[in-house]
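User: Some background: our group keeps a shared notebook of sequences we're curious about, and every so often someone picks one and asks for a predicted structure to add to the entry. Today it's my turn. The entry only has the sequence so far, pasted here. Could you supply the structure so I can complete it?
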Amino acid sequence: MANEKPQVSAMVNEADETSQGVPALDEAAVNDLVEIIHFLGSAKDAMSDDMVTRIAHTASESMAMLDRLLRNEGLRRLLQVLDRPESQFLLVSLADAIGKMSRELATIPPAEGGISGIWRVAREPGTQEGLRALSMLGKYWNEALRDLHRQGS
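Assistant: Of course. Here's the predicted structure to add to the notebook entry:
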């Protein structure tokens, strides 16, 4: 029995230490909390009923649009194709080409027109490659479109 008193006393001391273990907030933490409360109060005061209605309407429309996008099989298929490395290379090169084209068009004089101008442009290797790329796109696009219609999808 004499041995039990020191154990009980130690347990009471531990309980006192844990109840006092809640850290006190220092002045910087209190100031930060006060600033957050002022910010939230200002935001609440700034929100009129009309603003809340518009925000709710925008959120509702956004959810409806997201739902439509997620149900769109064509868009999902496009996103899958765009995720492939070769598609990303194509998009990056297309973006670079559009940038270069824009800068070059801004610096060269307008086309004069006529058969000789068309002949000059047609003789450039870039023109032939561009026509080849568009021709291939048309070929594969046409095949894919016909296949979809045959399948009834």
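Suggested note for the entry: The chain has a mean pLDDT of 84. Helices lie at 4-19, 27-46, 49-71, 73-82, 85-107, 114-122, 125-151.
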